[in-house]
Amino acid sequence: MLRDVTDVEPAGESRLILTFEGGERREIDLAKMLSFTGVFEPLKDPACFQSVRVEPDVGTVVWPNGADLCPDVLYEKSVPIA
């Protein structure tokens, strides 16, 4: 089931607040799922991590270096925000 990300807010060193289609907001700590190597290595730099944005054409988060994550994985690994 594909759930597009419609908004993203950086929330600390490795956390994101995500808004999915339909308005559901969820939080994810990427440090729990990424080793920050390869294409994700630049995200160790807080300035790079903070540059995250939503790419509407693919419905997920992306960074300027081309790193992105599957929106389904983001949804499954994130927790609802009360």
Q: What is the tally of beta strands?
A: 6
The geometry reads as globular
Residues in helix, %: 10-25%
Under CATH at level 1, the class stands as: Alpha Beta
The overall pLDDT, averaged over residues, is: 94
Number of helices: 2
Give unreliable regions as ranges.
Answer: none
The topology string of helices and strands comes to EEEHEEHE
Task: Please characterize this protein's 3D structure.
The chain has a single domain (5-80), classed as NE0471 N-terminal domain-like (2-Layer Sandwich). The strands form 2 sheets. A 4-stranded antiparallel sheet has the order 1-2-3-6, with helices on one face. The chain has a two-stranded antiparallel sheet with strand order 4-5. β2 (15-20) and β3 (25-29) form a beta hairpin. The protein is α+β, with helices and mostly antiparallel strands and 82 residues long. The protein is 15% helix and 30% strand. The chain is built from 2 helices and 6 strands; from the N terminus they run βββαββαβ. It starts with a strand and ends with a strand.
Can you describe this structure in just a few lines?
This protein has helices spanning 46-50, 71-77, and strands at 5-10, 15-20, 25-29, 53-55, 60-62, 79-80.
Key attributes of the depicted protein:
single chain; 82 residues; alpha+beta; 4-stranded antiparallel β-sheet
Give the helices and strands, then pairings:
Elements: E1 5-10, E2 15-20, E3 25-29, H1 46-50, E4 53-55, E5 60-62, H2 71-77, E6 79-80
Antiparallel strand pairs: 1-2, 2-3, 3-6, 4-5
